[in-house]
Amino acid sequence: MLELRDVTVRHGPATVVHHLSLSIATGELAALVGPNGAGKSSLARAIAGTHRPVEGTIRFAGADITRLDAATIAARGLTHLPEGRPLALTLSVRDNLLSGAHVLGSLRRARQRLDDVLPSFPVLMDRLDQSAATLSGGERQWLVVARALMARPKLLLIDEPTLGLGPRAAHETLTVIAGLRADGTTILLIEQNAALALDVADRVLVMGNGRIVTEGTPRSLLDDPGLARTYLGVALRPPHASQEDRR
Amino acid sequence: MSDFAIGLASNIGMLAFVALSAYLLLISGSISFGQQAYFGLGAYAAGIATALWDWPLMVALGFGALIGGLGGGLVGLLTRKLHGLYFAIATLAFAEMTRIALDLWHYQRMVDGEFVGPDGPNGFNGIRRAFEDGWDPATFMLLIWALLAVTLLALILFERSRAGVTLRATGEDPVLTRLLGADVARLRVTTAAVAGAIAGLGGGLYAHLNTYIEPRLFDIMLGVHALAYGLIGGLGTALGPLIGVLIDIGILESTSLFQGWRMIAFGGLVAVLLIWRPRGLLDEPTVRRLRALLARPARHA
Amino acid sequence: MIADALQTLLNGLAAGAAYALLGVGFTLMFGVMRRLNLSYGATLMFGGYLGALLMAKAGDALPDGLLAVLAAIVTVAGAALAGLYVERLCFAPLRDRSGVAAMVSSFAVWMQIEALASLLLPRHTNPYPAPLDLAPLHLGALTLRAEHLLTFAVAALLAVLLHRLLSASRFGLALRTLSDSTAAAQTVGIDARRITLLAFLLASALGGVGAWLVLVADQQVTPMFGMWSTAKGLIAMMLGGLGSIPGAVIGGLLLGLVEATGQALFGPQVRELIAYGLLFVVLVARPGGIFGRATVDLDAAARERL
User: Which of C188, C293, C297 to mutate to test the interface with A (most CBs of A within 10 A)?
Assistant: First the structure.
């Protein structure tokens, strides 16, 4: 579904992504992990169209999107959830959600879509007419995810969803994301918290200094503790029983 | 030098003062639409000083600068918590208030048998001290340029000083400004006062060269022009605004044939130039490159 | 006494309704760009001059009613066209770059438009066609001029239409989202450039109607109209709180009332002084506007690097 070839991204004079190639299959949940400054968010921005790569190609659903702008890419079904959870804080929760369906082309279709999406988010259903500014950090994360779903995305590019959230909210968020994958949405998850990402991902790509260092299943990464410590900076816990079940 | 050239040079000189005034605030990160108010206050103050109170010319010019500085400092103090657009509009409001107040103000005295002084919208006539003292257009032009040169030099030295560097740095980074707190706030208010004084000095010179001033001259047109000069000429150096004035007056005079179209052409030129160079011809990167180029031969010597 | 006060109130609200339209136009533009369009008033003046030009060239040939209608159309269309020109030249190319440059650029265009207007109609005072030649309505001691009624009716209608557009249409939602957060708009796939252009056209058209209401009451247009309408729109916007449409409406009405009161008490010159004085005081004391926050969020304002 998503294919990157030889992508290079620059930030002024610094090269933050070096000739990076990767591919994401339809329906899988791929996690991109790595330390701070590895270039993960820059890569996400290149894919989403907000910061063009200087070299390389990006193909999405069979089409070349390398030089397209963010709005066009979003309209094609690639929804980016950037870190920082950008919301229209003076607008109501309902309006924020409806704006997520902008690419559907009409407000009527957006309202229909809202009826489909809302039941999965009871927290938001209670707060539809409140201003988005009144939501807590965790609730805002729900809103951002629900808003992303409004666009009927083919691929969700989620950047650091658990940033700034307490452990419980972080865990809940990732449960939601795992649920989305179960519904068939392809997901590229960017997470600094590698332990959490390994819990839900089908495949993990480890990024360091602008390059993919290694990739594989969560199991294979955990089997190499030296790798984990070097690139993720943390000794990982053994996998949860739930992951054993999924295998 | 012909009379025409002398007049032109004098105009350029005086406009440069109000351009430098706006420039000083621009590099500190503030857009002021209101420097014309201090130009006007300086003009009126200096004019009153010589025409009504019989002060010597130089003292009057200094007085004009003082009043301009007080005005600038006051507004700087009142608006110290405002940023960006809020600050810009506040300066505009103050400048218009000043203009309208001058329009309503009458202060006349009997001097040598006739009434002299600001007469509301009818303006202020009879500011003849310079010519009574023996200055003629040519020597007065030299005075304008001498004072301008001193001002330019002071500004260039200031920009290289620690205070100047701090001012530019905080101008580009408001978060840094907040971190540095009270010291920077004091620096910025002082800068506003100095900017006002520069404009006030220019105003005093203007009043004495033209012998007549009226409130209508100190309107927003002048204020935005002042900003535009810096933006066209470049914000990288104090010479930038001067170049902006030269370009404007230069084009003004060279296309005097097509009076009506001059403004249309010039306006379009400015708009296009700003797309290409948003911070003017002599913007910061260009100035750095020029300085590097000029330093090279010195190093090889 | 009371009759005088009521009359002042009426005059103030009528003027204020027009100011409100100007303020809303300014606010719409500011919302999507975070910049001031200094040529706003000039674009409206351009529309007004087209109307006056029509009257000058064809005024005798056309019946009064038709002339007035055509002038209205020409004024609003002219304002929108000029607004399009400004957006394309001054704001679109500098979108993610220097805000000061964009504003000074818009000032340069203001000068262009003023020069063009003087070329079209060199005289200072140019008659503008008024649609109604009705005698004023007298209710007791109150005088209700036809222009007042027209202004109230048109402004109210536009307010309702605008509200519907903003709250119940895809475009309106996109505009509100973009005005609130450029990042959020980008995330959901809103094309900021397209929405900005459309917002500009909308704002220019609204301003054009506001200008038309004023010109119809004055029955003339002068070169000062550009500066005048820019100032009124700006003050209305700032009084109500930068970026708030309901605020701009209230700001406009308030400005109209303050001016009418000032004129009744002190005469026409002081009126302008009070308007600017009010603006200055509001900015210094409550920068968020009378209905906004007492202190503008420094971080947000600081991050709005111009």
Answer: C188
Exposed, middle or buried, C129 (CB in 10 Å: 0-12/13-18/19+)?
buried
**Which domains occur in chain B, in start order?**
3-300 (1.10.3470)
* DSSP one-letter code for B76: H
pLDDT for the residue C303: 42
Cβ–Cβ < 8 Å for C300, C243: no
Domain count, chain A: 2
Q: Which domain holds residue A231?
A: 2-77+153-246
SS3 B222: helix
Q: Please give the Cα distance from B118 to B104 (Å, whole number).
A: 10
Q: Each residue of C94-153: pLDDT tens digit?
A: 887 777 788 888 988 998 998 899 888 888 888 898 876 667 778 777 788 888 888 999
Token pair of A218, please? 């969560």
Is A75 in contact with C169 (Cβ distance < 8 A)?
Answer: no
* C2-125+144-303: in CATH 3.40.109: no
For C215-247, give one letter per residue: b (16+ CB within 10 A) or e: bbbbeebbbebbbbbbbbbbbbbbbbbbbbbeb
* A84 touching C (Cβ < 8 Å): yes
Q: Does residue B105 belong to the interface with chain C, where contact is any CB pair within 8 Å?
A: no
Instruction: Flag whether residue C1 sits within 8 Å of chain A, measured between CB atoms.
Output: no
Which residues are CB-neighbours of A144 under 8 A, at least 6 positions away?
A81, A85, A87, A161
Distance CA B102, CA B97 (A): 9
Distance from CA of B55 to the nearest CA of C (A): 31
What's the pLDDT at C196?
93
N-term to C-term CA, chain A: 23
Q: Are residues A18 and A133 in the same domain?
A: no
Chains contacting B (3+ CB pairs below 8 angstroms): C
Q: Based on the domain organization, do A96 and A121 belong to the same domain?
A: yes
- The interface residues of chain B toward chain C in range 228-247, judged by CB-CB distance below 8 A, are 228, 231
Tell me how many degrees the CA angle B221-B279-C296 measures, rounded to the nearest 5: 70
Contact flag B275-C295 (C-beta cutoff 8 Å): no
Residues within 8 A of B (CB atoms), C 3-62 only: 35-36, 38
Residue B176 pLDDT exceeds 90: no
Asked if B288 has any chain C CB less than 8 Å from its own CB, the reply is no
Distance separating alpha carbons of residues A196 and C192, to the nearest angstrom: 35
Shortest Cα–Cα distance, C141 to chain A (Å): 45
Cβ–Cβ of C188/A105 closer than 8 Å?
no
Write down the pTM of the prediction: 0.84
C265 touches chain A (CB under 8 A): no
